[in-house]
Amino acid sequence: CSVLIASSLAGEREDAVLSRLLAGIARPLQIVAGKLLFGALVGVTLAGGLFVAFALLGEQSWSRLPLLLAAGLVAGLASSAIGTLIAVITRDARTATLVALLLVLPLVPLMLVSVDGVWDTLFHALPLEPSRELFNTVLFERDPWHDVLVHGGQLLAIATVAGALTTRLLRRLE
After folding, report:
1. What's the pTM?
2. Which pairs from 43-46 meet CB under 8 Å and 24+ separation?
């Protein structure tokens, strides 16, 4: 979601669509909210699609599907918020895409090993690690509610902070 949203918002900025929207019919908060909702929709779609694909391959607990879709929504929101922030900081769509990829791809393999210190803080400041922990909790824990609230809260905090920063930076373009 981060790469998709970063490239789309940066592309709109590069093509002057964003400046026309800000000058006329849309407020920065509306633009950011639209991008976040689109990212959340992508997250829900991916989570649901993966669940159904794995259900075809083996037995799945269908009672977890609503919780998994909610996890996809929250993870999509947080990832999209990081994508909007990257788009506003960078100047064009190619740069935004490259920055988003270079931010995400090196961290994914590192999530498989235990890290401490600065890396642990970085993993929890970005939506990758809280999303992984949230999905693991939803899928594999017998009583997931406490951990779902913790990790879901982390993702909502990431989405709120990144979305607020993006909105503030977009106001400077008005």
Report:
1. 0.87
2. 43/1, 43/72, 43/73, 43/74, 43/75, 43/76, 43/77, 43/79, 43/80, 44/69, 44/72, 44/73, 44/76, 45/72, 46/72, 46/76
